[in-house]
């Protein structure tokens, strides 16, 4: 079992205080957006045996287990994070596995450098995600029913939004959503900037359900993503609640602290709320234009105390243990690799005492007992 030393990413949207507060450290004044736990080559966790990439590369079957290597190859297929949003992230969508393979192969054939700003596919993998709230957590997830979105836009009283309102009354619903999102993202930039400014003023005046969009517009003035965001469901998670974000589902995180786990990929197609590249034709190919309930997840408890967040994919499996007293121990031994992350209290994992924000990597099959009083998240795979 290896204690992990993890990198904190200073993205501009990060909260300057949330991760330091969790870790019990002094804020630096700079944004601290994500703490990465895993073997992503961009910022692998460090151990006493080298980086986690080096540890796994030295003996994949020992570290990951034969079943995980057979299913996913000689790599850790997930990345675990603590995410602290102090401002809205980009409105985005992820491809499914087949789309990722096709898109990556196409860009490779065309000779687009993998670090080019207009490159869409950094790898050939999909990127399903799960975010579990540690504090109240605001986000956008999936399309609203078109008539609901039409009402939200219409009540702003902005004349230049009327064509979108009319389009949203059309049938079928998927075609209406596609047409409206296309119109928003291809509108004249100057005209859209004026529309967003008027909409932002109205959102500030109306408050209530419009308050999140006023805040988005404050951070991204003139961005067409402000209007696109109003097509999506606004969700406020309470601590312990989660969202699963599958392929083709547009989403954005707005504010809050959470534990995030995802397949190990960098494939993101952006819809707005960003100065980065937006490839509208490719985005429209990937987005699934159907209204959906956000599907807030609550963990399913088992008799041994594990609370599992059910998802339909195998690259990751996230659960938590809420340990009420120091005397009892839980056997967490598994034939697959694990990362254990403490988010509250003090938890003893093997020989390591974990306080909030501290984590360990557990090789496949290693005897693992945890005890203490606190909350422990467990990340592994289904293999």
Write the layout of secondary structure elements.
Blueprint: E1 2-3, E2 7-9, H1 18-23, E3 34-38, E4 46-47, E5 50-51, H2 52-58, H3 60-64, H4 66-72, E6 78-85, E7 91-93, H5 97-109, E8 129-133, E9 137-143, H6 146-154, H7 162-168, H8 173-186, H9 189-206, H10 211-219, H11 225-229, E10 232-237, E11 242-245, E12 251-263, E13 269-272, H12 280-286, E14 300-301, E15 307-309, E16 317-323, E17 329-331, E18 338-349, E19 352-354, E20 359-362, E21 369-380
Antiparallel strand pairs: 1-20, 2-3, 3-6, 4-5, 6-12, 7-13, 8-11, 8-12, 9-10, 9-12, 14-15, 15-16, 16-21, 17-21, 18-19, 18-20, 18-21
Helix pairs in contact: 6-7, 9-10
Describe the structure in brief.
It is built from 12 helices and 21 strands. The chain is an alpha+beta fold. The radius of gyration is 22 Å and the shape is globular.
Structural description of this entry:
It is built from twelve helices and 21 strands. It has helices spanning 18-23, 52-58, 60-64, 66-72, 97-109, 146-154, 162-168, 173-186, 189-206, 211-219, 225-229, 280-286; strands at residues 2-3, 7-9, 34-38, 46-47, 50-51, 78-85, 91-93, 129-133, 137-143, 232-237, 242-245, 251-263, 269-272, 300-301, 307-309, 317-323, 329-331, 338-349, 352-354, 359-362, 369-380. The strands form four sheets. Strands 1, 14, 15, 16, 17, 18, 19, 20 and 21 form a nine-stranded antiparallel β-sheet that branches. Strands 2, 3, 6, 8, 9, 10, 11 and 12 form an eight-stranded antiparallel β-sheet that branches. A hairpin with a 2-residue loop joins strand 18 (338-349) and strand 19 (352-354). The chain is globular and about 65 Å long. The mean pLDDT is 96.
């Amino acid at each position: 079992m290896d204690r992990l030393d993890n990198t904190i990413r200073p993205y501009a949207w990060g909260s300057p205080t949330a991760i330091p507060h969790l870790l019990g450290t002094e804020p630096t004044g700079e944004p601290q957006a994500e703490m990465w736990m895993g073997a992503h080559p961009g910022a692998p966790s460090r151990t006493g045996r080298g980086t986690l990439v080096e540890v796994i590369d030295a003996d994949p079957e020992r570290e990951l287990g034969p079943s995980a290597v057979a299913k996913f190859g000689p790599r850790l297929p997930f990345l675990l994070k603590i995410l602290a949003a102090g401002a809205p992230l980009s409105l985005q969508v992820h491809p499914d596995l087949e789309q990722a393979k096709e898109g990556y192969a196409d860009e490779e054939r065309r000779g687009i450098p993998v670090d080019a700003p207009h490159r869409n596919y950094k790898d050939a993998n999909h990127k399903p995600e799960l975010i579990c709230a540690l504090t109240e957590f605001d986000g956008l997830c999936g399309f609203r029913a078109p008539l609901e979105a039409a009402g939200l836009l219409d009540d702003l009283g902005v004349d230049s939004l009327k064509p979108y309102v009319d389009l949203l009354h059309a049938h079928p619903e998927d075609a209406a959503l596609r047409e409206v999102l296309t119109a928003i993202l291809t509108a004249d930039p100057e005209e859209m900037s004026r529309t967003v400014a008027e909409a932002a003023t109205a959102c500030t005046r109306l408050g209530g359900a419009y308050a999140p969009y006023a805040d988005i517009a404050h951070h991204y003035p003139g961005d067409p993503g402000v209007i696109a965001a109003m097509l999506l469901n606004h969700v406020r998670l309470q601590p312990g609640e989660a969202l699963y974000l599958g392929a083709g589902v547009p989403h954005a995180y707005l504010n809050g602290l959470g534990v995030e786990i995802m397949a190990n990929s960098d494939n993101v197609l952006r819809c707005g709320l960003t100065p980065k590249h937006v490839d509208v034709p490719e985005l429209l190919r990937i987005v699934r234009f159907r209204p959906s309930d956000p599907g807030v997840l609550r963990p399913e408890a088992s008799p041994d105390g594990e609370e599992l967040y059910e998802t339909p994919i195998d690259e990751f499996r996230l659960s938590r243990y809420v340990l009420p007293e120091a005397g009892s121990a839980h056997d967490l031994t598994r034939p697959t690799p694990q990362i254990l992350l403490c988010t509250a209290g003090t938890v003893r994992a093997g020989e390591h005492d974990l306080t909030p924000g501290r984590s360990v990597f557990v090789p496949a099959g290693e005897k693992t007992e945890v005890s203490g009083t606190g909350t422990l998240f467990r990340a592994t795979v289904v293999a």
